[in-house]
Amino acid sequence: MGRTLAEKVWDDHVVRRAEGEPDLLFIDLHLLHEVTSPQAFDGLRMGGRPVRRLDLTIATEDHNTPTLDIDKPIADPVSRAQLETLRKNCAEFGVRLHPLGDVEQGVVHVVGPQLGLTQPGTTVVCGDSHTSTHGAFGALAFGIGTSQVEHVLATQTLPLAPFRTMAITVDGELPADVSAKDLILAVIARIGTGGGQGYVIEYRGEAIEKLSMEARMTVCNMSIEAGARAGMIAPDQTTFDYLRGRPHAPRDADWDEAVAYWRTLRTDDDAVYDHEVRLDASELAPFVTWGTNPGQGAPLSASVPDPASFEDAGERLAAEKALEYMGLEAGRPLREVTVDTVFVGSCTNGRIEDLRSAASVVEGRRIADSVRMLVVPGSVRVALQAVEEGLDKVFTAAGAEWRHAGCSMCLGMNPDQLAPGERSASTSNRNFEGRQGKGGRTHLVSPQVAAATAVLGRLASPADLSDVPTPVEA
Amino acid sequence: MEAFTTHTGRAVPLRRGNVDTDQIIPAHWLKKVTRDGFEDGLFEAWRKDPQFVLNQPQYAGASVLVAGRDFGTGSSREHAVWALQNYGFKAVLSSRFADIFRGNSLKNGLLTVVLPQEDIERLWALAETDPTAEVTVDLVGREVRAGGVSTAFELDEDARRRLLEGLDDISLTLLHEADIAAFEARRPAHKPSTAVA
Question: Is the dihedral angle over the CA atoms B19, B21, B23, B25 positive or is it negative?
């Protein structure tokens, strides 16, 4: 019987297979950041163990880093201590680090791909659940805990329990105003936050094949929000074109050999998935979340649902609690929900195409007086590219704040946070209670919706914008 | 890792589904660089509510958390496991766990047990009507016993053995050094390297 893409990559990394034990898999690339690594380095020190493969390990600073005044000492002493711990650990063990201020610094899942380190058919891990991002290249990439970070540092392998396979096939073409973010939010709403549990999802079909690499990363990034172990997309010419010439992409004869291998990384015609889901891209529309988990979403044209409409008692209770936390009442049109803050950035939507999308919406317009808009590029390289294209000027002319690279308001470990009760439209990945700051209320949206929302001061898509750049009172 | 064989303690009924790791331990706690001292951060936002189940005196000192479906979703932060353990929990029972959280828990000796939702409901009712009722989570016999009823649970044999014996995963893997070295020797040259040319 044929094999799926995920099974092929898995099989190519089995170091040891024994009856009654999990397969021991080799890890091609280990990404580190300051939050989930300190206890792992402590473990190495206690065991007297070195990092086995420094040449497969790289670190960056992202979660704690400020997005203002980066040339000054970090104000929060605890954040500063955590970053200093990473610097000390990397120096002691010899790990390559891109600290704040370095041209290669940025969100770990933006940095790996842009350096060309994320490649098809590799295994990629990081102590961060959004490692699923790298699956966009046909890599088997997943988030791990700190104990596993230590395990990979020490052995470059992981014992891993078997997975099930799921195909999510998206037929047809996405409408012009619908982005990869809308697509993945719709997928999560369909299968639920636990729907992917135990699965590696492969996204396929015409609509997926037509996505750019960056859009594919947005899709795979949020696989974890459906509970999946990983998300993958088969590599194709789009993937190869993105990789060619990047600093760590293979060169010369290695390139040809690599591409020949990468072309084999397609699910065989006779392979069978454990579960299949089909969507029609042409039926998708701009999508937003109304609740406190990423599965609680609806098309922007819909209204806040009535909890009583949920058949499952658990979902009904969850919806009730979500509406209470979000300060929303059933039946209110989503387009009438006003927001205070708009955040454009994160490993989900902090790449150059995302910034271009948002900029194209606010260009020549002003954001609403009542709205604070933060634009946080995913990496220093993304920021430099944006400046070269003049996007920073477009944002600041519209009244938005142009910041330095990092995770920022996606999880508010740095000073970029929502105040209690404050409401955001955010291009990030989680709308959990308090995620963006204690008591903050988050609506997950695409960059286009974020930008239109900033202009109107209420949840909106670019189609809602008239040429008059004045905010509409909701 | 501390071995887990069997544990008996009182239960806390957490009637919530989709308890994500941001609720278990909010991000600002993740700045700590140790594995301990997270107990005050556990469910920090919910604990501000005097009615929250952990604030009810009858559940003080309980060590078995009985939670709704999809416990531990979201982030990969192992701090969520440490926070539960630092607070005093030895086992968490739910009808479904997020994968990364479950892996993290088993690596730290926090036993996560999957039970059918009807058993979770029964344990909630038991803990609510009689907060002094004891629940036994028996990894040797692979069953949960409470209120005169016992329910069998599954756990893959390898994970079970590691927990029962409190084995160190890294030492076990390093027994296969020769296999790792052999794999490294046959890796293709085109694979990525972080080394600066």
Answer: positive
User: Which ranges constitute the DSSP H helices of A12-76?
Assistant: 38-47
Residues of chain B contacting A36 with CB distance shorter than 8 Å: 30, 76-78
* For B67, nearest residue in chain A (alpha carbons): A314
- Is pLDDT of A70 > 60? yes
Report the interhelical angle of A391-398 vs A352-362 (nearest 10°).
Answer: 40
In tens, the pLDDT along B139-152 reads 999 999 999 999 99
Q: State mean pLDDT over A182-198.
A: 96
CA angle (A99 as vertex; A356, A224 as ends), nearest 5: 60
Q: What is the pLDDT of residue A471?
A: 46
Q: Which residues from chain B sit within 8 angstroms of residue A127, using beta carbons?
A: 76, 78
Task: For residues A35-55, give the mean pLDDT.
Answer: 98
Q: Is the pLDDT of residue A468 over 70?
A: no
- Write down the mean pLDDT value for chain A: 96
Buried/exposed A237-247: b ≥16 CB within 10 Å, e otherwise: ebbbebbeeee
Q: What is the pTM of this model?
A: 0.96
- The per-residue pLDDT for B197 is 67
* Interatomic CA distance for residues B193 and A106, integer angstroms: 19
Residues of B in contact with A35 (CB under 8 A): 30-31, 77
- Complex confidence, ipTM: 0.96
pLDDT for A296-313, tens place per residue?
999 999 999 999 999 998
Nearest to A145 among B17, B104, B194 (CB): B104
For residues A50 and B56, what is the distance between their CA atoms, to the nearest angstrom? 47
Say yes or no for a CB contact (<8 Å) between A250 and B195.
Answer: no
Which chain A positions have a beta carbon within 8 Å of B160's beta carbon? Answer: none
More confident residue, A98 or B1: A98
Q: What is the largest CA-CA distance in chain A?
A: 68
DSSP-derived secondary structure for A148-213: HHHHHHHHSEEEE---EEEEEEEES---TT--HHHHHHHHHHHH-TTTTBTEEEEEESHHHHTS-H
Residues contributing to the annotated binding site of A: 347, 407, 410
* Residue in chain B lying closest to A414 (CA): B28
Taking the C-alpha atoms of residue A435 and residue A104, their distance in angstroms, rounded to an integer, is 27
> For the purposes of burial, counting CB atoms within 10 Å of the CB of A421, is it exposed (0-12), middle (13-18) or buried (19 or more)?
exposed
CB B103 within 8 Å of CB B132: no
What is the model's pLDDT at position A467? Answer: 57
Contact B137, B91 (CB under 8 A): yes
Among B86, B194, B196, most A C-beta atoms within 10 A, so best to mutate, is B194
Determine contact, residues A190/A198, Cβ cutoff 8 Å. Answer: no
CB contact under 8 A, B75 and A321: no
Residues B165 and A68: their CA atoms lie apart, in Å, by 50
**Minimum-distance CB partner of B98 among A26, A81, A197:** A197
Closest Cα in chain B, distance from residue A247 (Å): 9
pLDDT digits (tens, 9 = 90+) for A97-155: 999 999 999 999 999 999 999 999 999 999 999 999 999 999 999 999 999 999 999 99
